[in-house]
Amino acid sequence: MLANSNSSLRYDTVRVHPNAKNPTDPKGLYTLSNLDQALLLPFDILFAFQTNNSLFNVDVGGILKESLSKALEVYYPLAGRLKMGLGGKMVVDCDVEGGVPFAEAFFDEDMVVAVGDITMIDRTLAMKLAYNNQTPYETGLDVPPLTIQVNRFRCGGMILGLRFNHVMFDGTGLTDFMKSWSEIARGLRLSIKPHLDRSILSPRKPPKDHFPHQLEKPLTPPLPHEREQFIVNKSFIFTPTTLTRLRELAMQNNNKNEAVSRAPTTFELISALTWIFWTKAKKLGPDETSQIGIALDGRHKLQPPMPTGYFGNCIVKTCAQSRAQDLMKQPLSYAVGVLHDAIKAMTGDYIRSIIDFLEITRKPINADNKVMISKWTRLPFYEIDFGWGVASQVAPGAIVEDFAYLLFHGKDNKNLVLSVTLPSDAMEVFQGLITSQLKDD
Q: Comparing 97-111, 173-187, 353-367, which segment has the lowest mean pLDDT?
């Protein structure tokens, strides 16, 4: 496997700049919203393209760099660098000689041998496939808005690794950008015009914080190298048969819980299991409060709705919480019901309140005793085509501790993958618990 191999040849990294200086930003500073300010952490994502004979004689790196340069004319903040602005808020300096770091690597192995299923790879291997500084970033401000690494394999397969600073955009913003980039690569007109003005998510005047938001600790960035060995990423596959059985289980013993008088959604079901097993794996005391944060797209919750092509973060974390012993002793329907109520409570007014809360406190919303989960099943990753077909698989790379992602196992694959990152001792417990639920009769 690549994780234990020296078979890679890595080329020097170049920096890709916008094809032309954008004339509409004379001050060179690009303002970020309060929702952006709360997401200062790097995030990696991998796109695997299976063996394709047509790629052998194609300058993939050249095509991607040239089209990226053109895409940066429109998405110019991605070529800037983060800095602290007035009032202690981050901005993007678009006048610095930043650019997007772009690396190419060739591996003298077939992709199926070197990497295999990218939804199942470990953190160490994932970090080799997305551009990553050899020394840890001192602060989140040091993480460039976007970096690219093209990984070519002997068989003709390719993995496109992206690392982006989450302050720049969420999953929807990322896929909008990548769709535009891929359309430029194919010589097409942009189907999505980016909406760069983030002032639509400005706080109200005066701010109105009338929801019970918690004052919590900031998100933890990727850990220094000396602790990497203690953090483990594992992925678990849910087949349609498994989901049907678990859904029937979640409908039992629910007479006292109106929230699950209807069949739970797939996301509610898998999130509930994740929450219960995470609580057990972390060995929370019976009277401790266990929380699960649910990352939801607020674009269609706000009134008026956010403009199409909004370039930025509009994900909001709503939180479900319960005493640990209730989660561990009550039937599955209990956790499903608590989750359902938390998701239902995420309204447009709630989102505005979070924006105002962040304006007042200048601190992000996160917490101890919390696992975070995000779903990627509605993101159009498999519509992105640079000219050699869409990806066969898309997966997160190295992710932070106590995070979970739900995504499809691959293109045209009905199986779902739950990718979770935990300390190694907690993962051993979590893996045993969830694996026992995935065994179909």
A: 353-367
Which residue numbers are catalytic? 166, 385
End-to-end, the C-alpha distance of the chain in Å comes to 33
Alpha helices in 254-392 (DSSP H): 266-281, 324-329, 332-344, 348-361
- Cα–Cα distance for residue pair 115/52, rounded to 1 Å: 16
Nearest to 306 by CA among 383, 223, 200, 188: 200
Report helix angle 332-344 to 240-250, nearest 10.
90
Pairing of strands 81-84, 90-93: antiparallel
Crossing angle for the helix pair 266-281 and 424-437, nearest 10 degrees?
Answer: 140
Residue 135 has pLDDT above 60, yes or no: no
Residue 285 CA to residue 28 CA, distance in Å, equals 51
Rounded Cα distance between 295 and 433, Å, is: 24
Do 134 and 46 contact (CB within 8 A), yes or no? Answer: no
In b/e form, how buried is each residue of 399-422, taking b as 16+ CB within 10 angstroms? Answer: bbbbbbbbbbbbeeeeebbbbbbb
CA 202, CA 32: separation in Å to the nearest integer?
9
- For the record, the structure tokens of 249 come out as 């289980």
CB < 8 Å & 24+ apart, contacts of 240-245 = 240/414, 240/415, 241/440, 242/437, 242/438, 242/440, 243/269, 243/416, 245/440, 245/441
Are the C-beta atoms of residues 366 and 17 closer than 8 Å to each other? no
The answer for residues whose C-beta is within 8 angstroms of residue 362's C-beta and 6 or more apart is: 37, 88, 89
Least confident of 56-60, 185-189, 290-294: 56-60
> In terms of C-beta density within 10 A (0-12 exposed, 13-18 middle, 19 or more buried), how is residue 342 classed?
buried
Closest C-alpha to 420, from 439, 435, 436: 435
